[in-house]
Every structure is written in C-alpha cells, then in structure tokens.
Please model this.
Amino acid sequence: MVNKVFCDGGHAKKIVQMLFFFFFGAQFLYVYSGYIVFQFINMVVGAFSFFYIYKFIHRNAFLLVICLAIFATLTTLISFKYKIGDVVFAITMPFFAMLLFLYRKELTLPAIIYACITTCYCGYAIIMGWDLNTQLFLSSSRNYISVLGIFSLYCVIISEAKNYIKFVLFILVFLVILYSGSRSAFISFLFVLFFWGVQFSKKHKLSFFCFFLLCLAFFLFIMQEYFSLVYDYIYNSLSVVRRLDAGELSDSGRYNVLKCYYDKLNIMSVFLGLDYFSNNTCSFLANGTDNPHNSFIRLYANLGFFSFVIIGFIIWSLFSLLLAGKYFLAGFLLCFVFRGGTDIIFFFQSWDAYLYSIMFISLPMFFLNGRGKEKLKH
Model:
C-alpha cells in the first residue's frame, strides 16, 4: 500500500521533483563547500530513484548496473583502495540517470532553478572580479564553473522548459564559461555550439544561411578594418584567450600521467585496470594527489576490461544521436567526453548520471521495456 501511494500518481511526481531538487542542491553545495555529506545525499537520492524507474527499464539496464557493481568492487579490492563510495556511485547513478530520462516534466523547474543559481552566482563572481580559484568555491577550482554550467544547462535542454528559457540560459552559460578562463571548458563547449548550429540549420535552412552570410560579411569587415584593436581587446578581456595563446592546452603534469600509464600498460592491466595491486603511482604525478586529471584513465583504473564496454556504449550513443538527427544532444555528449578527458569528472561521482542519461536517451530501445517506451509517448 505504501509503495503504491508513493510510487504512483501525483505523489510520485512530487517526490521525483523533490529528488531532483535534493540532487542538484547537493551537487552545488558539495562543489561550494567540499563537505562529503553532500556526496552521501546524492548516493541516497540515486538509491531512492530506483523505486520510480524499475517498472520501466529493460533487463539490459539491470545487467549494466550489475556489471558495473561487480567490476567496480573487484578493481577497488585488487588495487587496495577499498573505495566503497565508488561502488555505491557505480550502482546508484544509472538509476538517477534513468530518472532524468523518464521524468522530463518533473525535471523542468528544478533544472531551471539549478541553472539560474549557477549562472547568477558564477556570473556575479566574474563581474565582481573575484579570484575564481580561491574565492568562488571553498574547496574547488575555477574548473567547476564549467562543470556546473554545462550540466545544469544540459538538464534544462532535456527538460520540457520553454524554448525561450532554454535559449536565454544557453547564452548565459556560454558567457559564464567564456569568462571563466577554463581552456578545456571553452573548447568542449564549442561542440555544443557547433552542433546547435547544425540542428538549427536543419530546421531553418534559409534563415540560417542568410544569418551566416550576414555574420561572415560583418566578421570580414571587422577583421580587415579593426583586427589589431579587436584582438587586443579580446586578449586583455578574456583570460581563456591568454591561456590558449601561451601555447599548450594542458600542463606537463597531465602529460607525465599519460606517459607513465602508457609505459605500464600490460596484459594484466587490460583485465584488472591500471591500478591493480596498488600500482597507482602514476596518478600522483599531476599535482601530488591521486588525480590523473582524466576521467577515462579513472574509468580504466576503476573498471578494467568492462571500461571498454562503457566506451562502446558511448560510441554507439553518439552514432545513434547523429543518425536520429539529435545533433544538439550529440554536441553535449562530445562536450562531456572532451571535458571528462581533461579532469576527473566521471567514474565514479554524481556527475556520472548525466553521461549515463545521454546513453539512455540515445538508446531507448535497448534500455527500456514496453512500459518505459509507452511512458515516453505521454
């Protein structure tokens, strides 16, 4: 009786919306404060999500979660790390990802508030000239400006928010990322911009063509008449341009991590992951902590052989989105992949839910049962 009251009808929709509020709030507060309790809240929210999605998912989705749990447990034991939190996130984040996928209407208000708080707080800090590495968040760097901005915008885009709200937040998030000074964030968001242009051009070919010609003519005129003036202004105004102009897209520490892991590749690491039997010295080379600054190195370290299955799903998802004409979402997927390749964002943390949700959105026939497919139609 209790399960029927809270997992069906109007009560379920209200509780699902509350789960979204708790999850987004905990993510923002964790980035701001660094308190581990907010990570625990996201684990609990992910676990509760199961009760609102299990009726709609195919056994393939259950098999994915079971394999994630098995391989995450195995690798954390043989690497002598004993990170129980990694195992819990491996199990619970796919559940919350399915919640994002199936409850788009309930997602709308929490996602809009999440994106507004992120852009307003980070935008205020940028305008006021705060030190984005020390004053914005108590325990996180400027890199998390883009993490919060990109993921909150993604939630708004997949929700049932009005198009004008999506467009306004899209512009605001882009401006925040542009002025955040993060090279990887700026480059990764270019995928979103490019594929948004592709999708817009498909729907409004004539308008897009005229707009493109107008912009091109204006750009050529500006470059011919005022190139040095414009470049100097951009160079002095945007720290991301100055950092890109320095020559390298990354630092030597991250290169040393990649080289170290490459040198240690062997048949054992293919099956057991990169850090088997406490063989994780490479991840400390970037900044002295266990942080290889690459989510896919962390994926390989945490899942071993099964990491290739996850990579396969990501590639399959990308092709499915492109073939279905969902170019905007394909841009977000590439943005997630590129951003994850420059920092530890995924595998295993609460941010995993967004990557899994794109996989579910792109492959509904594989992950949803009959009831789930029917729910998508309503």
